[in-house]
Design goal:
The chain is mainly α. It has a single domain, classed as Na+/H+ antiporter like fold (Up-down Bundle), CATH 1.20.1530. Helix content is 81%, strand content 0%. Helix 4 (66-86) packs parallel to helix 8 (127-153), helix 6 (97-108) runs antiparallel to helix 8 and helix 7 (114-122) packs antiparallel against helix 13 (260-270). This is Bile acid:sodium symporter. It holds the Pfam family SBF_like. Keywords: Membrane, Transmembrane, Transmembrane helix.
């Protein structure tokens, strides 16, 4: 029996289950401390493997298309933050201050890698350019996202001092990433051969962060603070943000004279935000504070973007082949 099109993927269902477990059985005390250490180690391993998986050849193959890459980076790191700020009069009263900060954090994140490339491939877009843009966005995001977070949210006191935030990123994310790039010479082929099961390392890291974050949030009374009406409002806010991003990236690609294949790449690489990077990075940037509400927008946005982009990619894929 085929899987229903609108049914979330297995990982998203697992993510929902973990939120449920954290709501019923939150960790606290010494157990929470132990989970915190395990989570930090898992995040370091995650970024080590990201470094080991990132192919220099793939980046070089698509690097020459600089106009496309500039537009994708501008959509990811300029357009989204601007939308987040411009929509504040609508979104902040709609979802509340803490969830609005989570939306700002979502806007500062880099693009996805795997799904952006997969949807571009399915839609018959410019795949080498998608590989280059998505990989470079993930790498640049390690540096740029903390700066954007400080710029967008620092005045609200959520991200700590600049030096502290940068130091945490360097130690917990950048150094493991560089180590992975160095180790790629020896383990790159092994990582490529075992990429199917290694994706569970990525997923396990995210699930650990979600469990520890929501455990703390549940103990602090997140579900008393977050009625169903607020969740519905957040769903609307994430949908609105994605719709605007898709419309503007599609319009810019056409307005600037890109080919259809390039416009497809711009659409799928410039409108996405990475759950795989966003959740672990939140654990680093906002350590010491409750991040349950801060990561809720990216968790919802992730599922919405997958469902909407799957439909768009299928429509592009059905266009006639050019002779």
């Amino acid at each position: 029996m085929s899987r229903p099109r609108l049914l979330p993927d297995n990982f998203t269902l697992t993510l929902i289950a973990v939120v449920g477990i954290a709501s019923l059985l939150p960790c606290s005390g010494q157990t929470a401390v132990a989970f915190g250490w395990i989570t930090n180690l898992a995040i370091a391993l995650l970024f080590f493997l990201h470094g080991a998986k990132l192919s220099r050849d793939a980046i070089i193959a698509g690097a020459g298309h600089w106009r496309l890459h500039l537009l994708v980076f501008a959509c990811t790191f300029v357009l989204f933050p601007l939308l987040g700020l411009l929509l504040k009069p609508v979104l902040a009263p709609l979802v509340g201050t803490e969830l609005y900060l989570g939306i700002l954090y979502l806007c500062a994140l880099p693009a996805t890698v795997q799904s952006a490339i997969a949807f571009t491939s399915l839609a018959r877009g410019n795949i080498p350019a998608a590989i280059c843009s998505a990989a470079a966005s993930s790498l640049i995001g390690i540096f740029l996202t903390p700066l954007l977070v400080l710029l967008l949210m620092g005045a609200q006191g959520e991200a700590g001092s600049t030096l502290d935030a940068v130091g945490k990123i360097v130690v917990q994310l950048l150094l493991p990433f560089i180590a992975g790039q160095i180790a790629r010479h020896w383990i790159g082929a092994w990582v490529q051969r075992n990429r199917n099961w290694l994706r569970y390392v990525d997923q396990s890291s995210i699930l650990l962060v979600v469990y520890t974050a929501f455990s703390e949030a549940v103990i602090e009374g997140i579900w008393q603070q977050l009625p169903l009406s607020t969740l519905a409002a957040l769903l609307f806010a994430c949908t609105l943000l994605l719709a605007l991003a898709l419309f503007i990236t599609a319009w810019l690609g056409k307005r600037l004279g890109f080919s259809l294949e390039d416009r497809i790449t711009i659409l799928f690489c410039g409108s996405k935000k990475s759950l795989a990077t966003g959740v672990p990075m939140a654990q680093v940037l906002f350590a010491g504070g409750g991040i349950g509400l801060l990561i809720l927008p990216i968790m919802l946005f992730h599922q919405i973007q997958l469902m909407v982009c799957a439909v768009l990619a299928q429509r592009y894929a059905q266009r006639p082949e050019q002779s």
